[in-house]
Amino acid sequence: MGNGGTGCSRCSQEAVYLQRATGRHLCSAHLAGEVVDRVRRTLAADGMPPAGSLVAVALSGGKDSTVLLSLLQGIARETGELDLVAITVDEGISGYREETLRAAAATAARYGVPHRTGSFAGLFGRTLDQEVTGQEHRACAVCGVLRRKALTILAREAGADCIATGHNLDDEAQSVLMNWLRGDRDRLLRDPLQGGQRGFLRRIKPLREIPEKEVALYGVITGLFTPMPECPYRHAALRGEARAMLNAMEQRFPGTLERLVQGQRRLARGAAGQIPAPVGSCMRCGEPATGPLCQACRLLEEGCFRPVRHR
Amino acid sequence: MRVRLPDGSLRTVEADGIPVEEVLARLGVNPVEVIVTRNGILIPEDASVCGGDEIRLVRISHGG
Q1: SS3 at position A285
Q2: Closest residue of A to B8, CA-based?
Q3: Domains in chain B, please, with CATH?
Q4: Cβ contact (<8 Å) for A4 and B46?
């Protein structure tokens, strides 16, 4: 190899990536090819949406959702069996969201995918910044619940059959660790791949087995990655701690993230049927709920947000 | 060598012929969290770097 480089484990090109969990070096072409193959395998394993489905792709404008839209657009074009609509939620995070919103609109236009946007301010009456002033540690928890709700509203309004999100392996592992740290037995034992039943809009996570670094490298290799500003709440919440802890473990003990996620899935499969499923409907919005209100409407009731609009 | 950190700041590191992951360790950066380029070209974290190289680190995670 010239220039002090290391060779790809699959060809004679220079490597751009060391996949620590397997010890292999990969060049640009083989890394990109493996990412595409894994997304296809994940979709096949989880159940490809049926022919004719309209898939709402949650497009934040960041690298994960941009890569996701690109890959799904490729599959949709190739099979001719899926239609896509991009949906973007403006949470109202000043100094951060403006740039990513512009990127989302540009990405949707680039792929010729219809694009729908909604905002916390429009849907719930207040921005995230307004809701968590002085309580920044709540930002990720509030944002997570309400963004999920907003995506569901936008996807239903678009007539979508399912929502595709850009969660990668790192996101999944962080969620598992956070559920352990919170002692949240129900979330730990609920199979995250189940959905689309009991009135839930089905969710798919085609990138769920791909480490974040590989998603980012795929984005660089294919010209989709643009450095974006950091979310100002990134370091305020439990997820930031979980991320740092897991990244340190992954560096020292490669494969930690994958083992953590796989272990949780084994636990969930073993506990199938033991966790009560939502049996009723939220009295405010009609979404499935275990009590009178769904999680988002409970949060809205507690805070100053106005209740979500009825479907 | 000169190293451009994810926040845009520039650091000079005295090193020659060592894996870039050792440079990152000196700077307190976890290789899992960054993409590394040497003279504008992507490199794996165990690639060797030399005194005249321009290293750039790009943080991969931005969200909350």
Answers
A1: coil
A2: A227
A3: 2-59 (3.10.20.30)
A4: no
Which residue of B lies nearest to A4 if distances are taken between CA atoms? B48
Q: Is the ipTM of this complex over 0.90?
A: yes
Domains of chain A, start order: 47-277 (3.40.50.620)
A281 vs A289: CA distance, rounded Å: 5
**Pairwise CB contact (< 8 Å): A4 & B48:** yes
pTM value is 0.91
Cα torsion angle, A186, A39, A288, A197, sign: negative
Residue A159 token pair? 């007539």
**pLDDT digits (tens), chain A, 311 positions:** 544 568 999 999 999 999 999 999 999 999 999 999 999 999 999 999 999 999 999 999 999 999 999 999 999 999 999 999 999 999 999 988 888 999 999 999 999 999 999 999 999 998 999 888 888 888 888 899 999 999 999 999 999 999 999 999 999 999 999 999 989 888 888 766 655 556 789 999 999 999 999 999 999 999 998 877 778 887 777 888 899 999 999 999 999 999 999 999 998 888 877 776 666 888 888 888 878 888 888 888 876 554 455 44
Which residue has 């500003």 as its token pair? A229
